[in-house]
């Protein structure tokens, strides 16, 4: 089926507007079926050098194009993506495994980002402000950084790339993008769309290959002035320290240990819906996945029973089938990690209420599936309630009060997303103030970000930058302060006034 959607069996790098083949390659496996989808190039540092040289030249011209004209390309990108939404969604499900409804949502996020960032071409606002001296004008403007390096994960292969590359491009940068080796098709498709939309050659370059080869070469390249990375904390930490040595700007979006808080005054049916969608959507392989439910003890048993009843209805399988709600696990390393946490949870004394096993029989035999899993009676300090599992596993932590719920939510090293279900308006406002995460949802699950708001987390989730929203422009621009003195004489600030 993939070959009917994809006209090639092996992908090529996209460098300087040319499709460049690579000597070595690796099979990309559909996690739902175990079948090879396509071959992805395994490039090396030399290819990165070529891409950066070309990007550097292209960027000089691109930066001189007026921003509204740069934005025209993004509008065209958005329209082409819109036309191809169904084809892109199906390919996304084949390489990543997420169910088709979610794949469509992810592609839509990219389309929204294209139109939003295209609009920024006519804003890119700086400030004008009074100067302290007579006959003097002061303003601040955004300048492009130059060549930017983008490194993306497999779990959102197109949305995250658009959060990063669209603001970079509209701001006048050139991009070298290394997509995750697990999910290269969206990068190939997006590169083709950029080509068709008329982006000048060399402004967007895609280099496929392992993080340890291509990603590392980008991080260490003198002419890449900013690295925008989304992925695991281990990789992010190592990239940050290498960038620190070089005084290179780096934006990191990493893991989460997100919680849904359910208070005793919550609409429990709504809470159950929110938990199921956040915990088991994308098989829990989202940075914003709900992997803890902090529940008031008065409604704990009721919530458990409702969750168990609804979990029984979840259909697990190949996400191309519209009736499937939970897809596969991306790879064996992911599966092994999930299984290890089941044992950790049992060993810590949490009670396994549902799931906890790999599904490999009947319709699940060729793919890699894990049963949606519910632990209860977890305590806040258990490893299953502290560490990112990245699978369909959720742990209930009972609490006695609102204050304790906030404390448990904040008592992890991550700070990406949190949610509270309550009908008390005072608690709503206290929660949005006190929850120490970059994203807070009220009466909704932990997922569902909109592209015009900043996306990212506090504490161990990030390093203070944000993807998407107008804030993403801060990663890809430098602020420049400009003073124009029209007095005809030398005026000295702080001295002559
Ligand atoms: P990962 O293993 O860190 O990989 C992310 C990207 O980094 C991949 O492209 C990978 O290349 C590359 N990479 C690996 N080692 C590298 C190195 N030494 N130098 C440079 N690049 C390197 O993460 P993942 O497993 O793909 O993604 C899952 C993680 O991402 C989870 O922790 C999740 O929470 C997090 N995430 C965070 C957000 C957010 O916005 N906060 C969003 C989505 C996901 P390969 O192709 O070789 O793997």
From TrEMBL:
<dbReference type="InterPro" id="IPR016161">
    <property type="entry name" value="Ald_DH/histidinol_DH"/>
</dbReference>
<feature type="active site">
    <location>
        <position position="253"/>
    </location>
</feature>
<dbReference type="InterPro" id="IPR015590">
    <property type="entry name" value="Aldehyde_DH_dom"/>
</dbReference>
<comment type="subunit">
    <text>Homotetramer.</text>
</comment>
<protein>
    <recommendedName>
        <fullName>aldehyde dehydrogenase (NAD(+))</fullName>
        <ecNumber>1.2.1.3</ecNumber>
    </recommendedName>
</protein>
<feature type="domain" description="Aldehyde dehydrogenase">
    <location>
        <begin position="19"/>
        <end position="482"/>
    </location>
</feature>
<keyword id="KW-0520">NAD</keyword>
<dbReference type="InterPro" id="IPR016160">
    <property type="entry name" value="Ald_DH_CS_CYS"/>
</dbReference>
<dbReference type="Pfam" id="PF00171">
    <property type="entry name" value="Aldedh"/>
</dbReference>
<comment type="similarity">
    <text>Belongs to the aldehyde dehydrogenase family.</text>
</comment>
<dbReference type="InterPro" id="IPR016163">
    <property type="entry name" value="Ald_DH_C"/>
</dbReference>
<dbReference type="InterPro" id="IPR016162">
    <property type="entry name" value="Ald_DH_N"/>
</dbReference>
<keyword id="KW-0560">Oxidoreductase</keyword>
<dbReference type="InterPro" id="IPR044638">
    <property type="entry name" value="ALDH7A1-like"/>
</dbReference>
<dbReference type="InterPro" id="IPR029510">
    <property type="entry name" value="Ald_DH_CS_GLU"/>
</dbReference>
